[in-house]
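Table S4 entry, Sodium/hydrogen exchanger.
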Amino acid sequence: MLQHLIQLNKKKQKLSVNIHLILIKKKKITFLHESSISIFLGALFGLIIQLIIGKKIEFNHEIFFNLILPPIIFAGGFNIRRILFFQNFFLITYYGIIGTIITFIIISILTIQVQNITFIIKFPINTSELLLFSSVLCATDTVTALSLVKVNQFPQLNSILFGEGIINDAISIVIFRSIKNYVTETDQNMDISKIILICLDFLKLLFGSIFLGISIGLLISLFFKKFTSFSLFPLKEMSIIFICGYFSYLIAEVLHFSGIISLFCCGLIMGHYTYLNISKESQKGTHLSIETIGYLAEAFVFVYLGVSLLNVNYSQLQFMFAIYCILSMFIARFTAIFSLNFINYIFKREQKLNKQQLLMVWYSGNIRGAVSFGLILMFQSENIETLVTVVLLIIIFTTFILGSLMQIYGKKIGLKNEECELKINNSNNSIDSVDNKLQMSKFNQKLANFEEQYMKPIFTNNIYIKQQIDLVQFQQNSQQ
């Protein structure tokens, strides 16, 4: 079974870039990204289906959030390069949580300011709708950036872009749901009391989801530590991991928390502790299968998005409003990233990003994708058709234009390979950094000591601790 998974992993990588390679070799088109091609193929597929059966395929937000997005998030948590993630944990959460909140506030202010300017907004829209719409515009898509910022060349920047991208999407969804909980069709006014309730609801959703995901992940780790006989049945081990991962999403949704945050935290904990308690065959098989399913789901999202291009009423397009929203996104993202970096500089934090890294974090955060489209379809408003066309135009512009210019932009800002590399030290079974830039901060060192003294002895089998290095080796080999 493991050999089949390895072959499938290699085949899906070849299949996903096949058309891309043809374009590069035959037409010398080197600027197109896989996501752009997937959207184009989706639109072409949707057109063919429409011509054959005479029906349109609609983007169902429930299918997206309940079936397509969870595998992507779980794969991100379970297979994340945890050494890099925890080394850059402060910056990832700093920009991912606080940065997204600042971005939302600035976009909200900028859009509300032009609420009554008919030159920009030519349709009636209230403040509550603009707040919801602003939360939709906060959800970024870093797939294109990650394809350029390779982990071997930019380990720190890649880790921050990846982690911040997932947290950004999760926070955007939480903000959207928090506002939506206190805005009804009959009462769409916004006052101080509602704003306070929204903030409290946001905190409840955020910390409740984190606690739930971590708790379920730790319980599964204890389960595999206790019942070691499952190591004789790799298929059962893998099945339990998949089921429990999705269970963390479902139970969070049932309890009205964020399933996305819960699932990511659960995947992160399971990949960190549960991984050490399962057999080697299950370790490799689980990594490959989760990575493959997540990759296919991600590709399907863009194809699905392309299909939806045919279902939009383009007569409702508000071009000036779309341009204004794009400019607002640029301003909000720039202000959030560089103001947070300035604060980081004032307090002389050990972990910092240089100018080129900050510019890349800003640029990549301006690209919008399927999460934004899925959120706007959850909108309940008389202006739904107009807002959907605006969001779709923003997605197409940022994905095709900004995504295509990503490589050129990286060269223009002088983005250079980080002068460090991860190497595996077999003598002490740890991963060290050649450059001091990736050395752990004092806080991370204390956290690592706490984990070694208390967490790992409780949640892992000592005989499996030596296997921790295997996942890193396997991740590197599977990507070659």
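The two ends are 20 Å apart (CA to CA).
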